[in-house]
Specification:
Helix content: 40-55%
Strand content: 15-25%
Strand order of the largest sheet: 6-5-9-8-7
Number of strands: 19
Number of domains: 3
Radius of gyration: 32 Å
Number of helices: 13
């Protein structure tokens, strides 16, 4: 009777493991596939952000008129600096022929960004994508051609998804093979085709059964409106998934992943035999020990669940050390400790960033100086906790310009802690030079030389420097890459736009600042506006840009409106236009308005 009970108990336990393993196998397969694709999305986000930064910086240089003749030293230097900062840029060419059937940028249904077909520049190189970017000139668009290597993306995928029992394939838009991980064993022996010649071939035609059968199964599932799921190849069952990876508008790569079902079943098989052996042993030894073993399993898990709930409520000091010989439970407790420490570090980092934001915001002028005949208004809002924009207003107490105001608006490439440090360095040097009574051109040259020494390749700062002369009613200014600038001459009913005088600071230590600065006479009602590109390029949920015309329209107002109210109208218009779309760049504005008669 006792032996029968043992057999019944063991049989029921074994049957339960078979039943539960069959139910859990699909969930486990889906979980492993989702985890793999999550790693891919993280890698893709990083690659896509780097490509987007390359395109954005290229477009900014072209829009601001810094890319001139394709053979000019300045153009070559700027392109070389950008290519050095972005390893995925294999080649850059300015002022090239448009791609076939590109149309006119900005026309009906056309785009200023054209993605070409992936190809290989050389037999031994990784695949790459040709991209053409159109920039509107005065009469016709001018084109930038760049060759974007897929090598960094492919290497990252191979590192993250390298498994001996899983097959990963990366495909181009036309379902041609760009990468395999891991490579099939002995491809020359199996297919008679060298491994390198499989790249750029249609996946449905390659002589590797797993790839060919998996792709055909995906095509059948697509026709039925279902995901890939389970399929067979040469009598072996697999679980697979295939998904598009968008890189740009209308351009996507495809990632396929196949996992053998034997890999999923192996843990269950081992677990079944282990459970059966332990169950039989426990029953044979003595039934009372069954409860003891159950407590050894469940009690640590119950305690760790309790600790996890406490951690989720912010009690980061909660800790549990399981007294068990089960390695899995010990590993789970260690993972919980690592999670708690990571959360503590994350909260500390968030606190540090809040402190950095407070310090940066506190460094901006708390009150703008009052100047007879003029009113000033300024505003700066970082896209992250810390930003790469700043402004400053300093009253000059020494030198030939004593009594005047020195004005600054600067915008470092990017946003976050790195650009914030760069722009604060520029502001500090600006203040030191201004308070020491140095000539503005000497201060500008000194700042540029220092930034060229300190900034890494591909980084620069666009800047606007102004000297406000209240007694003369004049504003003198220079712009290093900061454009466009607006002068609304209400006294004459005329609007003026000024381009940049020189390239941005930090690009070329030999920039010639000797040309006389621009100068405007500010009469009553005249307004001078300096805006960072984060305002012009702010987007709404439909991807439309705020632009210069909307900015000017929101700033205009009836006669007698002060710069503070004009700035408030600009911020309200910007907020209404963007809606729920988060800012992807810092936003800064500086307005100078004449409020009294100009000195004769």
């Amino acid at each position: 009777m006792f032996l029968l009970l043992v057999l019944l108990f063991a049989g029921a336990l074994l049957g339960a493991t078979f039943f539960l393993s069959s139910l859990a196998r699909e969930d486990l397969a889906q979980a492993q596939l989702d985890q793999a694709f999550s790693l891919v999305e993280l890698r893709l986000d990083a690659y896509r952000a780097s490509v987007h930064r390359s395109i954005t910086e290229l477009k900014a240089l072209a829009t601001q008129g810094l890319l001139r003749d394709k053979d000019s030293p300045q153009t070559k230097k700027l392109l070389a600096s950008l290519q050095k900062a972005h390893p995925e840029l294999l080649d850059l060419e300015w002022d090239v022929s448009p791609p076939p059937a590109s149309g006119a940028p900005g026309g009906n249904g056309s785009s200023s960004l054209h993605w070409g077909k992936p190809h290989r520049l050389r037999k031994e190189s990784a695949p790459s994508i040709p991209i053409h970017l159109a920039v509107m000139g005065k009469t016709a668009p001018r084109w930038i051609r760049m060759e974007i290597s897929l090598g960094p993306l492919i290497e990252g995928l191979q590192r993250n998804l390298q498994q001996k029992t899983a097959q990963v394939v990366l495909l181009g838009p036309e379902k041609r093979i760009l990468a395999l991980a891991p490579r099939p064993p002995h491809p020359e022996k199996e297919s008679g085709v060298p491994m390198e010649s499989l790249l750029m071939q249609p996946i449905g035609q390659v002589p590797i059964p797993l790839l060919r059968n998996g792709y055909r199964a995906w095509e059948r599932a697509q026709k039925e409106g279902k995901p890939l799921g389970a399929f067979e190849s040469e009598g072996e069952a697999f679980w697979g998934k295939m998904q598009a990876l968008p890189l740009g508008e209308g351009f996507s790569l495809w990632l396929g992943l196949g996992i053998p079902e034997t890999q999923l079943a192996q843990p269950f098989t081992q677990f079944r035999w282990w459970i059966l052996g332990v169950a039989i042993l426990l029953v044979l030894l003595a039934l009372p020990y069954i409860n003891k073993m159950a407590r050894e399993f469940t009690h640590p898990l119950e305690q760790m669940i309790l600790v996890s709930e406490q951690i989720s409520q912010g009690q980061l000091e909660s800790h549990y050390e399981p007294e068990t010989c089960l390695i899995e439970v010990q590993q789970l407790a260690q993972a919980q400790d690592r999670m708690r420490e990571a959360l503590r570090s994350l909260l500390k980092m968030e606190g540090d960033m809040q402190v950095a934001r407070a310090i940066q915001q506190a460094s901006l002028p708390k009150r703008l100086p009052e100047v007879p005949g003029f009113q000033l208004a300024a505003w700066s809002e970082p896209a992250e906790e810390t930003g790469g924009d700043c402004y400053d207003v300093v009253r000059l107490d020494k030198g030939p310009l004593k009594g005047s105001l020195a004005l600054l608006l600067a915008d470092a490439t990017g946003h976050g802690i790195g650009p914030a440090l760069s722009v604060m360095q520029l502001r500090s040097m600006f203040r030191v030079g201004a308070r020491a009574g140095q000539e503005p051109i000497d201060v500008l040259r000194w700042i540029n030389e220092q930034l060229c020494d300190d900034l890494p390749g591909g980084r620069f700062i666009t800047s606007w420097f102004g000297i406000l002369l209240p007694e003369e009613g004049k504003l003198r200014f220079r712009s290093a890459g900061q454009a466009p600038l607006f002068y609304l001459q209400e006294s004459e009913g005329v609007d003026h736009r000024f381009p940049a005088d020189t390239p941005p600071l930090g690009v070329d230590p030999d920039i010639d600042f000797r040309r006389d600065p621009r100068e405007v006479r500010m009469r009553e009602g005249d307004l001078f506006v300096v805006l960072s590109d984060g305002i012009f390029e702010a987007k709404n949920t439909r991807g439309e840009k705020f632009g210069a015309e909307r900015a000017l329209s929101s700033i205009r107002g009836p006669k007698g409106m002060g710069p503070g109210e004009r700035l408030r109208h600009l911020r309200e218009a910007l907020s209404e236009f963007c809606g729920e779309q988060p800012a992807d760049d810092d936003r800064t504005a500086l307005l100078i308005q004449g409020v009294g008669p100009s000195p004769s």
